[in-house]
Amino acid sequence: MNPQNNFNWQQAFGELKAKVERSPLITQNSDSYQAVGTLYNQLLDKFQRLPKPGQVAAFAVAAIIVLTVFNSIVQLISALMTLAVLGVLIYIAYKLAIAPQSSNTNDK
């Protein structure tokens, strides 16, 4: 390869690197945070404009939804732990019952 061809690759790499460094990835991320903040402020404004019984009802519905999601997560974790314990018990049973029998068969 000649030096001219090498230089072109290095120049192209430098241009690409400069382009990536100038890309607005951070501003897009801050735009997402601003959008979430704006949504939160809109919901808070709507909530505060509700009459007191409406605020109580909205809070109750939100609490029920949060507790339902929390309950589902706890049940999922419980099911995963049960499966893990069952897997360990099956592995122990295999090692104690089946593995010694197969090694005795191979010894004969």
Automatic annotation (TrEMBL):
<keyword id="KW-1133">Transmembrane helix</keyword>
<feature type="transmembrane region" description="Helical">
    <location>
        <begin position="80"/>
        <end position="98"/>
    </location>
</feature>
<keyword id="KW-0812">Transmembrane</keyword>
<keyword id="KW-0472">Membrane</keyword>
<protein>
    <submittedName>
        <fullName>Uncharacterized protein</fullName>
    </submittedName>
</protein>
<feature type="transmembrane region" description="Helical">
    <location>
        <begin position="56"/>
        <end position="74"/>
    </location>
</feature>
